[in-house]
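Hey, resending since the last one bounced:
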Amino acid sequence: MDNTNQRKTLINGEIALFLKGLIIGKVLTLLVIGGLLWWLLKPNLLTSSRSESSSQSLNTASGNASTFKTVANVPTNSFNYGGSTTWAPIRQLVDSQIQSDRPELQLRYVQSADGSPNSSSGIRMLLNEQLDFAQSSRPLTDEERAAAKQVGFTLEQRQVGIDGVAVIVNPSLNVPGLTIDQLQQIYLGQITNWQQVGGPNIPITPFSQKPEDADTVIFSNSDLKGQAFSPNVKYVYSTTEAVRQLSKTPGGVYYGSARAVVPQCSVKPLPVGRTSTQLISPYREPLISSEQCPRQRNQLNTEAIKNGSYPITAKLFVIIKQNQGREQQAGEAYANLLLTNQGQKAIKQAGFVGVR
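The C-alpha cells again:
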C-alpha cells in the first residue's frame, strides 16, 4: 500500500511539473510571437504616426490666417497706381499696412492730371502707361479691352471687395424708398416728380457724375445700359459736390458709394428694392436723423450688401496689365495681398465688404 501511494504521489508530481512546463512554454511562445509581430509592425506604426503628425501639421499650417508676409512673388520696386475715388479708404488704411509689412513693394499714388480721379481715368492712365495697375469700382468695358489689345496687351480685372451703391436725398424729403426701375426712370427722365413715387409734389432734381467718369453705375446689369441720361440731370464733379448740392436742393437725388454717403449728416439715404414691397436700407436700422448727427452716424448695412438682398452693389477690381512684365507682377501681387485673410479683414475695416 505504501509503495502504491508513493507511486501515485510521484506520478501526480510529474504530471503537475509537465503541465507547469507546458503552460510556461506556451506563455513564452506567445511572448516571442508578440515580440516578433511588434518588431515587424514597428516601421509601419512609426510611419503611420509620422504621417498623422505630418497631416496635423499640414492642417494646422493651412488653417493659419494668410497674411501680407506669406504672399510670394512680390516685386521689389516702386510702382504707380491710382483710379477710383471709392478706393480712397483702402489706400489710406489697407495700403499703409501693406507698406509696413512688405516695404519692398513701394506704392506711389498718381492722380489724374486731366479731370477727376475715377475708375475711367485710372484705366485710361494704365492704357497710356502712366500707371502700372489701376483700381476700379466698376467692370472693364468692351471699349477698354479693345483699346488694350490695340497697344499689345490684355487687361484682367481681379475682384477684391464689394461696395453698396446708395441713393441719397435731401433730409427733408419724405419718400418711402425707390425700386431700381423707378431710379432708372428718374435718370432717364420718365419720372420727374416725387409725387409719382409716393412722395410730396416736388420736382425731382437728379444729380450724377458723368456716366463716362462715374465710379458707380446704375445701369450696368440692365437692358437700359447705354441709354442717355435725361437733360434734367445735373452733373457734378464729385460725390462731395453732390452732397453739398443735395443739402440745399429739396427735390435732389444722387447715387454713389454707400461707404462714402451713408454716414453723411447733411443727406438722407433711401431704402432701395427690386420691388416696392422689398425695400432694403443701405444703413443699419434705425435711421439716424440729421439732428442726431454727428454724435451718431448711420452705419452700413454690410450684411445685406454681402448676402445680396440689397439690390445695388459695386464690385471693387484691381485692373492688371497682362504683358508678362513688371507691371503684371505688381498688379497680381497687389491683388493677392488684398485677397489674403489680413487683406480682407483690412478691407472690411475700411468700410467695405470682402469677397472671402
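The CA atoms of residues 45 and 51 lie 10 Å apart.

Sorry for the duplicate.
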